[in-house]
């Protein structure tokens, strides 16, 4: 057994600002902790997460399962048995992180008390050398750090993220100190000993970068970078490598900087590249960016669903081969879409290019949001794009990564709306909210008003106390444009695309287009109102023919939302509808369960069965399509995102 | 490390008869080594196995993969690396076993030479203490016998089976001696040391019983019994228990004698119960039989496909919940159907009840035979009952259990045709063949002539040198009867079932029905001809409504064969056909690839698409159904076993 070097001064980094700037980022995101969300679409969802989803997480984590009990058992030191799976600690941390974000927009004393109570239990379970893992501590501590697949550093990463988030919202640092001790333990055990270690489930890299930015201690940056450098050299040991013989599964077949293709487990990949982008931004290491450009294009051009979901195969919870994107069998784990949001945010910061936010927005409003029921207490682990009616949301899962992941994403929405730099303001997502940005020495209150995604009008109201010159960068979503970017898997065949409009104080404004943003560079005064008007036409989307699953099929999109046809709105069926080229499509006020939405309405050929079941015929019928994220909230129902434009053949369903 | 007790006299059991009789069996099977197959249906398949399938196995085992090389590496002792997976040794043994059977009906000097060459390499890889396993010997011998999932005794079991089979055909005992040494090593290491061990993949139990019957050394019976007794007491250690926490997976959650339900991995279950039946027959232990009656009914009444396939779920390669038998997603591993043949044979011997042979025949002619292409060199691992055209047979598999398993089953067909006891002859399968049975002191040549399964006429010609009184037991297949047995999942709604006929020397014979057999108890003379005439009507099969996947659907069966509709015979489609109640069905001479078969022909409503894809209508069309085992031999094609009797709704297929 190695001896652990414990630095004496690990409490030394307290007073430093928590929002660090790294030089190569084009701008910094405004933290959730500085953004108040008032949005018509999102605020009720944030409230639902606080009042319902997090309650479900707490009930499952401490009431129904042993996740909290395991920490208590470690603290009691009475040789009690570990219950559950070795990665269960992470669910506690992720729920805590979600609570941390939630407290910002939905303060709740009881929730904060619960978090403090958990934090006490977690702290009590940390070993004197900083190690913190209920599985190994309760089973056989001598086996710790032997199987790299056993999620020890994955758990650690989620602890770090929770600690930073909780500190950011509350200023309380008990959990942060626990995280620092554990991070130091890991650094001492591996990097400082030149002991090789490949994380079997990436996560700690991005988490260490958060800790680095929170503490300004560059040992965490070094450790994150070291973790990245460990991959692809055959250092892996444990079940992935020795038993499954599948280093690709955790992107360990090739050094990160040499990776060109997306492979393996989707969530692992997303967390890896998020961490790599964070490290690249801090170290200015161009190698990671080059690799990620290639990998990103491999995702977007050949391996992403229209919903922004990724990882089509349930077998490896990940990628199979290019264009293998089946609809009904789509795995599309909720966590992978959450990971797409993380990674694309980092790529946007690193490059200043809005195309990454287009993907982020696609994953957020569709693939990720679909993981959470409208009621807030049911979840999808996988998010298929078609269903024969077999799919239903669950209360929970044995492997429970998704519920707390979608909770923390929704609760942290504030992180993704605004950006700021010395030169100006970036508006990435259109969400009713207010914040205060720093431009040079000026502090500028900013307010956004919108009914997005139902309506394309976005007002940004600027309130500098005295006039100040800076640039306002308004993202012009990729879906506004009629023509797809080269290489893109999906393209729009829209009815007469109209242009977006930008005005200031009610008058058309001059702007330049740069990196996907409309840039308004001018002297701003208190009360200036910037208006962006995005045309909300219904788009017919087609995919490249390489994607054979969607040949002769069309999907519908309006704004950032992908639509689907569900049986609940269409006489119980969804697979008997044809949507020929010339079908007229209309937006319509509609309600799914209690959710007010814009539905899409059409008159289209539908195959009808005779009452006695002996024959079929085609009739023109009213068809309703609803936003994809709202499906599966009214019982088991057939559903389709991609509708046929013509019939090649039919399959008869009988009784089941 | 334990010391191994090596018995001095392990060569002592050589001269004893290899076909042992155990008292509680109702009769003994006639061994393949005593049966010459001349059958129109089966002989070409046995020849194809010899000339093509086994060549593919050899090519894959020694040419394309490292399976034989691993044995060579052990013998060379040069610290070379193991290649492949820890259970790969078993594929060598299973191919050898298949060769052994094949040499009986299709002698082939080159094949026998290859087998001898492999046996030399295997023998050279055995350690002085009897241990034989290339994985542990080439990786870390100190880890042997630590993870009960690592298939050490599974591999051993297949070695034993191969050794006994090869000895039975050739009389050569080199491999048998290797097997005896390994079996003794295991017995010394565990049973004689009172050291607990749960086999993570059952197989060795039934193999030890073969070794016991071959050697008459009852330590192997004791060891087999001991292996059974180890289960269900929490002794499991290794990945199944410690990591997956799923002892049910290998039927280790409950002691074998207390098991009531079928659970877990299907092949493991079949091998377990086969071994348990073998042990029960030898020890007269009623506990096993009682348990197996319950489990068998759970399989047949609630968990078996109409093809005799079992294990619907790919997730655990096994059973999920009662009546969960999806058609297109059916896993139905070929090996599991092979296991059904094994287990049901043992149950038939133990009880004398023909109902087990009904199941055996169903699995053999459908679920198992489907695993082998008509060309003999392509394989199915899973055998779905419906396909949208995505399924294709493979040349080989990473986990390559199925090809050699179906090879050894077909090649050993002789084991399943006849039974004998002091009282008479049993005819279980209808296969053109000849053998010689022993009835009391008499030796009676027996010959069977038939065109089964295409035709229901079966002639059995008896040639005792002098008249002798005994019983001829002719199995009357369950499918002859119009009404299903109580509890059965499937039932026939046949057009006017006609009765079977039994005659002797051309005249109607008197017989009694007993245990599903027509028993003719009389004085037999040389040249007596017993004729059984089975009505070969086409049966419409329906399933209990609990099996929701087949509600309002019908399957077709003729004789033992289940039929399917494949696109290749029906304008490329198989999901657009309706088969209403009153559809006239006719048998028709037909050819699938080069296989002459009886197809089923009908005129039925078919949903036709207009050329421009805008609409559909129903038309009466000619429909062809082919035997299920012949599908997927003419490229990728949609297929269905269960056809709708009426349309509830349709699904539109578009481009893909």
UniProtKB/TrEMBL annotation, chains A, B:
User: Per its record, what are the GO molecular function terms?
Assistant: hydrolase activity
Positions of the Non-reducing end beta-L-arabinofuranosidase-like GH127 C-terminal domain: 539-644
Per the record, a Pfam family? Glyco_hydro127M
Q: Where is the Non-reducing end beta-L-arabinofuranosidase-like GH127 catalytic domain?
A: 34-414
| Every Non-reducing end beta-L-arabinofuranosidase-like GH127 middle domain range | 425-536
Q: Which residues form the signal peptide?
A: 1-20
Q: Does the keyword Signal apply?
A: yes
- Gene Ontology BP, a term: carbohydrate metabolic process
| Domain of life the protein comes from | Bacteria
Instruction: Tell me which UniProt keywords the record has, alphabetically.
Output: Hydrolase, Signal
Cross-referenced PANTHER family, in alphabetical order? DUF1680 DOMAIN PROTEIN (AFU_ORTHOLOGUE AFUA_1G08910) (PTHR43465)
The protein's name in its UniProt record:
Glycoside hydrolase family 127 protein
Q: Which organism is it from?
A: Adhaeribacter arboris
């Amino acid at each position: 057994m190695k001896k652990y070097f414990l630095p004496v001064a690990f409490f030394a980094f307290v007073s430093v600002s928590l929002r660090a700037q790294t030089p190569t980022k084009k701008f910094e995101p405004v933290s959730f902790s500085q953004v108040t969300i008032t949005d018509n679409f999102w605020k009720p969802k944030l409230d639902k997460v606080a009042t319902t989803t997090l309650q479900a997480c707490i009930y499952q984590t401490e009431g129904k399962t042993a996740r909290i009990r395991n920490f208590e058992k470690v603290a009691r030191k009475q040789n009690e048995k570990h219950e559950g799976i070795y990665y269960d600690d992470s669910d506690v941390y992720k729920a805590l992180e979600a609570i941390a974000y939630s407290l910002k927009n939905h303060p709740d004393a009881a929730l904060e008390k619960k978090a403090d109570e958990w934090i006490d239990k977690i702290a009590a379970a940390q070993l004197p050398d900083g190690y913190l893992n209920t599985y190994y501590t309760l089973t056989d501590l001598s086996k710790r750090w032997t199987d790299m697949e056993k999620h020890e550093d994955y758990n650690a990463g989620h602890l770090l993220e929770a600690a930073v988030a909780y500190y950011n919202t509350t200023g309380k640092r008990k959990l942060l100190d626990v995280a620092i001790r554990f991070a130091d333990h890991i650094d001492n055990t591996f990097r400082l000993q030149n002991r090789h270690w490949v994380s079997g489930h990436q996560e700690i890299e991005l988490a260490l970068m958060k800790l680095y930015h929170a503490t300004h201690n560059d040992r965490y940056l070094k450790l994150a970078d070291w973790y990245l450098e460990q991959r692809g050299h055959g250092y892996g040991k444990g079940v992935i490598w020795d038993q499954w013989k599948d280093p690709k599964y955790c992107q360990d077949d090739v050094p990160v900087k040499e990776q060109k293709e997306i492979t393996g487990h989707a969530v692992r990949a997303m967390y890896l590249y998020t961490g790599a982008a964070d490290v690249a931004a801090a170290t200015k290491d161009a190698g990671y960016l080059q690799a990620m450009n290639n990998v990103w294009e491999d995702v977007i051009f050949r391996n992403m669903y229209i919903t922004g979901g990724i990882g089509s195969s349930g077998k490896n919870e990940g990628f199979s081969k290019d264009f293998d994107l089946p609809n009904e069998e789509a795995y599309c784990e909720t966590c992978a879409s959450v990971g797409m949001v993380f990674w694309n945010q980092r790529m946007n910061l690193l490059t200043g290019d809005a195309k990454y936010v287009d993907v982020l927005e696609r994953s957020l409003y569709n693939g990720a949001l679909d993981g959470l029921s409208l009621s807030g207490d049911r979840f999808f682990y996988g998010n298929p794009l078609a269903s024969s009616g077999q799919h239903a949301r669950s209360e929970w899962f044995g492997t429970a990564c998704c519920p707390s992941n979608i909770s923390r994403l929704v609760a942290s929405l504030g992180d993704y709306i605004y950006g700021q730099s010395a030169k100006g303001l970036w508006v990435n997502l259109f969400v009713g909210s207010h914040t205060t940005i720093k431009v040079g020495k000026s502090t500028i209150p900013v307010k956004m008003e919108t009914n997005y995604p139902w309506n394309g009008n976005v007002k940004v109201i600027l309130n500098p106390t005295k006039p100040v010159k800076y640039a306002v960068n308004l993202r012009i979503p990729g879906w506004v444009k009629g023509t797809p970017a080269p290489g893109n898997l999906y393209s729009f065949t829209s009815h007469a695309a109209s242009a977006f409009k930008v005005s200031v104080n009610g008058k058309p404004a001059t702007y330049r287009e740069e990196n996907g943003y409309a840039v308004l560079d001018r002297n701003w005064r208190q009360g200036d109102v910037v208006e962006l008007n995005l045309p909300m036409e219904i788009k017919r989307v087609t995919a490249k023919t390489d994607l054979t699953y969607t040949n002769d099929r069309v999907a519908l999109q309006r704004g950032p939302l992908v639509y689907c046809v569900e049986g609940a709105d269409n006489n119980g069926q969804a697979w008997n509808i044809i949507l020929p080229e010339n079908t007229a499509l209309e937006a319509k006020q509609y309600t799914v369960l209690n959710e007010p939405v814009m539905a899409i309405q059409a008159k289209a050929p539908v195959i009808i069965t005779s009452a006695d079941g002996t024959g079929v015929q085609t009739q023109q019928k009213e068809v309703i399509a609803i936003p994809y994220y709202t499906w599966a909230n009214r019982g088991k129902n057939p559903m389709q995102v991609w509708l046929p434009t013509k019939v090649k053949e039919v399959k008869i369903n009988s009784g089941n």
